[in-house]
Amino acid sequence: MALRTGHRAILSDLDGVLVDSGDSIEEVWRAWAASHAIDFALLDGRFHGVPSLAVISRVAPQLDARAEAAAVEQMEIDHPATSVLPGAAALLGGASGVPVAIVTSCTDALARARLGEAGLPIPEIMVTADRVTNGKPDPEGYRAAAAALGVDPADCLVLEDAPAGVAAGRGAGAVVVGITTTHRREELAEAHRLAASVAEALGL
User: Fold this and answer.
1) Are 84 and 19 in contact (CB under 8 A)?
2) What does residue 53 show for φ and ψ, rounded to 5 degrees?
3) Which run of H or E residues covers position 66?
4) Catalytic pick from 13, 23, 39, 44?
5) Per annotation, catalytic residue among 15, 20, 23, 155
6) Which of 3-12, 157-166, 176-185 has the lowest mean pLDDT?
7) Residue closest to 182 by CA, chosen among 71, 96, 105, 116
8) Per residue in 48-62, pLDDT tens?
9) Which end of the chain is more exposed for a tag (fewer CB within 10 A), N or C?
10) Percent of the chain with pLDDT over 90
11) What would the mean pLDDT of 78-92 be, rounded to a whole number?
12) Contact 15/22 with Cβ under 8 angstroms?
């Protein structure tokens, strides 16, 4: 079965699309920045949808980025506070009638922690930061998810809440819906269309 839009699969980001973990993510990054005497203003708004390794490499090149990213991840796993966003449970429960994969800048362990905390099912295909060479905005993750589902990226609908993710989805050749939970509408202007939630985007 295909969606009425003609797409054969849905590839969805996790944070800000399926679950709201924004407050806990910000708390972790604030704590990390304070522990290294880094001005949080250098980070604010720049860590959503981007792998921790890339964020740390950019703002604190003097640090061991891999070690620090591992520390940030453990902090996030220890504080996975999330809530389910509208349409997420229905989407992961099969209501769309097409295969669904998650493509996230989280590691596998963190993604599973957040889904578990939210009480959401874990899809069979989940492309995480530790399974790609290049994170968002590179399209590698979305191309890998489409390949794992056996479909062309052009036949996929991508759900994203961050500019880096929108760029990744478009770079893969998919149709992208920007979910306006995390960023202003103008920041998601590169998406093919915008919606307030997964429920609105898919009519779930």
Assistant:
1) yes
2) -60, -40
3) helix 65-78
4) 13
5) 15
6) 3-12
7) 105
8) 667 788 889 988 999
9) N
10) 70
11) 91
12) yes
Q: Where are the domains of the chain?
A: 9-21+82-202, 22-78
Active site residue 155: no
Six-digit token string for 78? 């220890």
- Tell me the two tokens of residue 113: 């922690």
Which structure tokens are listed for 186? 């103008």
Q: Strands 83-84, 19-20: parallel, antiparallel or unpaired by DSSP?
A: antiparallel
Are 92 and 173 a contacting pair, CB within 8 Å? no
Looking at residue 152, its pLDDT comes to 97
Confidence of residue 43 (pLDDT cuts 50, 70, 90): confident
Alpha-carbon distances of 161 from 14, 78, 128, 151, 203, rounded to whole Å: 9, 24, 16, 23, 18
Out of 3.40.30.10, 3.40.50.720, 3.40.50.1000, 3.40.605.10, which CATH number does the structure's domain 9-21+82-202 have? 3.40.50.1000
Q: Taking 70 as the threshold, does the pLDDT of residue 4 lie above it?
A: no
Q: What is the pTM of this model?
A: 0.83
Residue 13 appears among annotated catalytic residues = yes
Q: How confident is the model over 83-110, as a mean pLDDT?
A: 94
